[in-house]
Every structure is written in C-alpha cells, then in structure tokens.
Amino acid sequence: MNENIIYTTEGHTIAPNEDVEVENCQVLGLAFGNNPEEAKENLMRDNPWIEEAGFKEPEFIIKQLLTNETRLAVK
Q1: What is the C-alpha to C-alpha distance for residues 69 and 50, in angstroms, rounded to an integer?
Q2: Does pTM surpass 0.85?
Q3: Which residue of 4, 29, 53, 66 has the fewest CB atoms within a 10 Å radius of its CB?
Q4: 60 lies in a domain?
C-alpha cells in the first residue's frame, strides 16, 4: 500500500497573535491505500472526528508520499 497525506483548504487557523486569522491548509492525516480513494476511505473510517468537524470529502487534496516499492527499498 502507498502512504498518502490528506489535507484541505477548508477552515482557518488562529496565529499565535490571536488578532490575526490565517488562511492555510488543514492536514487531516496520513493514510495508507492502494489508490487515493482507498486512502481517503481508510482515513475517514479511522478518524470520525473529520466528518464531525464538518470537513467535506470533495474538498480533500490527496498526495502520495511513498509507494510500497520505495518503502521496501528504503528498508
């Protein structure tokens, strides 16, 4: 399985100076899957807080970090 990072541009963050609102990306998590859809399904199954917090799956950005072959080569 490949490792993926899943993030979204939904939401915002408060800076250390609480007077400043920062627009940025929210990392939702890392997930394994044979393809991006499977990784997303695994992330959502293991992290129900994501849906409870109001994040929307169509807004997710999924980027592969490592392939299984690369991981084996590194070991």
Answers
A1: 30
A2: no
A3: 53
A4: yes
Contact 64, 2 (CB under 8 A): yes
Residue 20 lies in a domain: no
22 membership: H or E segment, kind and range: strand 21-22
Q: Residues of the chain whose pLDDT is less than 70? A: none
The pLDDT score that the predictor gives to residue 52 is 96
Listed in sequence order, the DSSP H helices in 11-52 are 36-46, 49-52
State the total domains in the chain. Answer: 1
Distance CA 69, CA 44 (A): 25
Question: Distance between CA atoms of 52 and 28, rounded to whole angstroms?
Answer: 13
